Amino acid sequence: xxxxxxxxxxxxxxxxxxxxxxxxxxxxxxxxxxxxxxxxxxxxxxxxxxxxxxxxxxxxxxxxxxxxxxxxxxxxxxxxxxxxxxxxxxxxxxxxxxxxxxxxxxxxxxxxxxxxxxxxxxxxxxxxxxxxxxxxxxxxxxxxxxxxxxxxxxxxxxxxxxxxxxxxxxxxxxxxxxxxxxxxxxxxxxxxxxxxxxxxxxxxxxxxxxxxxxxxxxxxxxxxxxxxxxxxxxxxxxxxxxxxxxxxxxxxxxxxxxxxxxxxxxxxxxxxxxxxxxxxxxxxxxxxxxxxxxxxxxxxxxxxxxxxxxxxxxxxxxxxxxxxxxxxxxxxxxxxxxxxxxxxxxxxxxxxxxxxxxxxxxxxxxxxxxxxxxxxxxxxxxxxxxxxxxxxxxxxxxxxxxxxxx
Amino acid sequence: xxxxxxxxxxxxxxxxxxxxxxxxxxxxxxxxxxxxxxxxxxxxxxxxxxxxxxxxxxxxxxxxxxxxxxxxxxxxxxxxxxxxxxxxxxxxxxxxxxxxxxxxxxxxxxxxxxxxxxxxxxxxxxxxxxxxxxxxxxxxxxxxxxxxxxxxxxxxxxxxxxxxxxxxxxxxxxxxxxxxxxxxxxxxxxxxxxxxxxxxxxxxxxxxxxxxxxxxxxxxxxxxxxxxxxxxxxxxxxxxxxxxxxxxxxxxxxxxxxxxxxxxxxxxxxxxxxxxxxxxxxxxxxxxxxxxxxxxxxxxxxxxxxxxxxxxxxxxxxxxxxxxxxxxxxxxxxxxxxxxxxxxxxxxxxxxxxxxxxxxxxxxxxxxxxxxxxxxxxxxxxxxxxxxxxxxxxxxxxxxxxxxxxxxxxxxxxxxxxxxxxxxxxxxxxxxxxxxxxxxxxxxxxxxxxxxxxxxxxxxxxxxxxxxxxxxxxxxxxxxxxxxxxxxxxxxxxxxxxxxxxxxxxxxxxxxxxxxxxxxxxxxxxxxxxxxxxxxxxxxxxxxxxxxxxxxxxxxxxxxxxxxxxxxxxxxxxx
Lengths: 406, 575
Prior knowledge:
Chain B: It holds the Pfam family Cpn60_TCP1. Chain B: One of its GO terms (biological process) is protein folding. Chain B: One of its GO terms (cellular component) is kinociliary basal body. The complex is a heterodimer. In chain A, 39% of the residues lie in helices and 18% in strands. Chain A is an alpha+beta fold. In chain A, helix 2 crosses helix 3, helix 9 packs antiparallel against helix 10 and helix 11 packs across helix 12. The two termini of chain A are 20 Å apart. Chain B is α+β, with helices and mostly antiparallel strands. Chain B has 3 domains: 287 residues, Orthogonal Bundle (GROEL, domain 1), CATH 1.10.560; 92 residues; 144 residues, 3-Layer(bba) Sandwich (GroEL). In chain B, 41% of the residues lie in helices and 17% in strands. In chain B, the strands form 7 sheets. A 4-stranded mixed β-sheet of chain B has the order 10-9-8-11. Chain B has a 3-stranded antiparallel β-sheet with strand order 4-15-19. A 3-stranded mixed β-sheet of chain B has the order 5-14-6. In chain B, a hairpin with a 5-residue loop joins strand 16 and strand 17. At the A-B interface, helix 13 and strand 15 of A face helix 1, strand 2 and helix 10 of B.
């Protein structure tokens, strides 16, 4: 019965009329602001909504979320968050006395997954030497191999070298002496850099030709809050980094809220939108109530039960907001079929579609929830296999099966 | 030394079936498998006591694989059923339930196990002969010119697994898809010895079931970025393919404990890289269009090949190697290339075309063979549990279709074959007992009646296991088919008002039939044999089972029951 209910009422889309670019932008900002309303950074929702929409609208057709990075910085006001067109990552290490230029323009970037440290290339190998000269020759060979690799990197004309694996002091100093920048950014930032600069991660330095190196418009260093950041500019590559300065740890964890807002805006661009504030659940509930009246027999009771279950969501929204849930739900019942939902700001109900409290249509997954419930209801026994330990022995045949009815 | 334990003497139990513990265990086991049986069967959730993967299923293959069993008698049962399922894929629960029913029913009659075993064999022979005979009243021929019966067969398999959570439209869609997949595995030139092809199931979880589709050829999953770099070349005609099963990464193989002496000036890495690049140049000069590698390819080799417009795909994995060999093979017997040395021209294969495809969030290379019996079934379902069940069900359905090609008959499903067979056995043992006993002087007719009654009750209990909602089970006195009525129905004299169709869907209640409760004692009657063709043709949807699988299940059930009944001693080694 529940499967029957889920199928014909699985989508409720309010098809939006074609909008101009400006109207679409306003709509998307309101969508992003709705997503941020329930988060800690809701006080700055207007500020962040604008940034989120700027970023998502300038992504390419694939709208890849991984091209947007979020960095957190101690100290500073949340409302001062800059949006970097490109990639920013925390500066790791530089030698005192090494005066790196603050900016490189149009540098070539080498992305390497090579260890450049003085240690044996392969673990577990043994070398038999007979004389001191042989030993010296081995040590020299190791140094020469390392310098050879560094030389190849230098000759590739890369100005910025980004490493996935750790590099030693020798390599860092070598690059510093030759006015090259080297850093080991976190993996996510390295991946994004790889995609943005159109380079490829090299596992060997033997062939570092121009087609495997990436390039960017500008590479530099700046101070944000209490930390220094390296950033790369890729105006053509469509990648952005949010930098969240804040003093409190909780606000810094709100990168998830930004991620939510970005995902919502992206979905809204891809798919159509529906009214928020749980108007969908109320409308579905109404449809099911109407449908149940056409069904003779006891099946009607199941449909009514499903309809009542849907109303639990706006009820919970009201409870969480501290409203009188019964009162609000009664008002919603009175306005059934008019796309009304809960208005959190005014402790009342309102036409959320007109108020631009929208949600993406594909976020509504009612049918899956119903079918999952069917799956769970079908389970009548749980069988727990005994522990696989040496000491415990199953006590007779009957104890093997622990049938626990639901 | 603290872990050393003195050897404990072995434990010997005589007459194991007389023990209350064993009977209780058998009863619990029977309850588990019976409650999973049929389209309205319940699901079992199996998990490890230490946590980990949780399996929710009602299928015997998954249930027995994940169930941990230690009692010897249950182990024999489980092993027999698993063996049957590995050969036939279907009717695993049927076998398990019938075997338990036989053991339980036979224990209630006071006869020696030897007599019971002998008579069980006679009855099995009777069933097998009847089900294989032309006069069988529950056997339908499969005409592969029409898709109706094969579709009914596939639909019966799909609907009997409730954990897949399929709606009616989804069942219809997947049934048609499975039939199409099966037809794609049949070679076009049907001469001489026919070898059916293979279908590869490609998972797409989180999508709607109706997004599932089937494509001829092989799909190789690729990350989107790599796909964008490896743009297929626009070439008319077949593409020449080199398939490597060895690594092309340039890694030096492990020398083990040996010593490698390297002369001065020689770099092992460079030497291997040179060898790889020479191989690449040979592939280019041999005009190879597509290079496939099971393992990893060196980036320099990839660069060389892409510079010469040769598509290189690596990290294919061992699972796809066998179907790829079949798809790309030029002549029978050609193996994938396993060395980095010089390659003979006969090692290359060809494919008709290479395309890119996108399904959901996954991107694929689609290799289309020149001719072939390999296809890829893209199966979608909402979540992991439902997808795992659907995959197993589709594999069962495909296997069942293959078995039906060999022996083109199906049996009526929905419990009708079991009740019909029980009625037939009762009729035969009452009216023609000598035809069953033949020259066996060791058994009397009374003994035959007792064992036959136990056998028939076992079959009928199996049919009753299909009903899980407390409804009543009836049988008609003409065909001996299975009829069910909802629970708490008013006791009516006129059953035709409450009943609609029999379990298999062949007959409806409008025919002039008389019914009685299945569990009631009734006078044996001769069920109508020889199915009328018009009845088969007129009914819209039939529930049918594969004859080979069901007959195999019947044989395994009786033989396993005989084996267990014959057990006199169980000797267990404790440590």
